[in-house]
């Protein structure tokens, strides 16, 4: 099943590096992401749109309204995650790796956001963890420490972008914190974490731009649907009313979803996990790679018309279920 929607492409002289030259054009035709990109190339435009800053994002919003459209951001199948800074004009390089604390970064799957520790060294942490954070004001080269306000990394980034410039990014900006005391950074604990603008992901812009700008809408529909549906009915419902059936790619997401399933009225809830009989493997309909697994048993293959469901009780393990069975389901909105 291929999701199709309208798209926005970029017109300009190749890989445009300044916003003054960017020209966005909206095409009100439903196409898959690959089809939309081919359309852009075949019609002598640069590529699908690259979004390099909040200024670009606001321009797109003005034209889109409540509609959705493809842009040039895509995820490589190799899933190689590169560390980047939230401020798109600040580059991460090899020299900066000396700023990591001992044995950091120490997680290769779930800890994809950067923090500052009390020794002013960096450590990786789950982006869904709620921590204090530091914003930066580009206009007067100043910072604001929100030591008593805890948010997940994405919420902290949005907060900083709304009220300041962005999360503090790069060694040059963080040099300003050298004279800041531990008590000012960590009034609640002397051994805590505070979010900075460091993150990693496997997403890339289709035109080859190195912009690190991201503006994800990371939310889920908190209502567990009490109406039982087949897997396909659940998929269409989520894609029509929200975004997709839920995807679970790490332990944090697993725990979050299983907490929400306490309100379910069926023994299982459908997820976006699907088995392809012809190719012989499981995949997420959101195109995420199935790396994290929580199967009840390893014998989850060799049957057609099967999809993945999570048990709402017990250990919340995953089970293969025939598509025509009817369960509650869980939608994501991003």
UniProtKB/TrEMBL annotation:
It comes from the Eukaryota. PROSITE patterns: C_TYPE_LECTIN_1, C_TYPE_LECTIN_2. Keywords: Disulfide bond. InterPro entries: C-type_lectin-like, C-type_lectin-like/link_sf, C-type_lectin_CS, CTDL_fold. Residues 24-136, 138-216, 229-332 form the C-type lectin domain. This is C-type lectin domain-containing protein. It comes from Oryzias sinensis (Chinese medaka).
């Amino acid at each position: 099943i291929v999701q199709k929607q309208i798209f926005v492409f970029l017109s300009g002289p190749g890989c445009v590096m300044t916003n003054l030259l960017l020209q966005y054009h909206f095409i009100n035709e439903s196409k898959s992401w690959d089809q939309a990109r081919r359309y852009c190339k075949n019609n002598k435009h640069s590529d699908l749109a690259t979004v390099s800053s909040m200024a670009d994002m606001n321009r797109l919003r003005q034209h889109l309204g409540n509609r959705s459209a493809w842009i040039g951001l895509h995820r490589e199948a190799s899933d190689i995650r590169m560390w980047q800074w939230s401020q798109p004009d600040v580059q991460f390089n090899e020299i900066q790796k000396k700023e990591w604390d001992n044995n950091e970064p120490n997680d290769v799957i779930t800890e994809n956001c950067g923090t500052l520790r009390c020794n002013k060294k960096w450590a990786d942490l789950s982006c869904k963890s709620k921590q204090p954070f530091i914003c930066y004001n580009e206009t007067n080269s100043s910072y604001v420490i929100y030591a008593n306000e805890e948010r997940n990394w994405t919420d902290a980034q949005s907060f900083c972008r709304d009220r300041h410039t962005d999360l503090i990014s790069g060694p040059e900006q963080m040099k300003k914190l050298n004279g800041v005391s531990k008590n000012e950074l960590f009034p609640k604990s002397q051994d805590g974490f505070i979010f900075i603008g460091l993150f990693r992901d496997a997403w890339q812009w289709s035109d080859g731009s190195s912009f690190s700008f991201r503006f994800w809408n990371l939310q889920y529909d908190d209502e567990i649907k009490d109406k039982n549906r087949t897997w396909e009915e659940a998929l269409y419902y989520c894609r029509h009313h929200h975004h997709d059936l839920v995807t679970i790619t790490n332990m944090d997401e697993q725990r979050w979803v299983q907490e929400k399933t306490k309100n379910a009225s069926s023994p299982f809830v459908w997820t976006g996990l699907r088995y392809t009989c012809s190719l012989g493997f499981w995949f997420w309909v959101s195109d995420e790679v199935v790396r994290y697994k929580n199967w009840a048993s390893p014998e989850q293959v060799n049957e057609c018309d099967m999809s993945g469901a999570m048990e709402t009780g017990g250990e919340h393990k995953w089970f293969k279920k025939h598509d025509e069975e009817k369960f509650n389901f869980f939608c994501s909105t991003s």
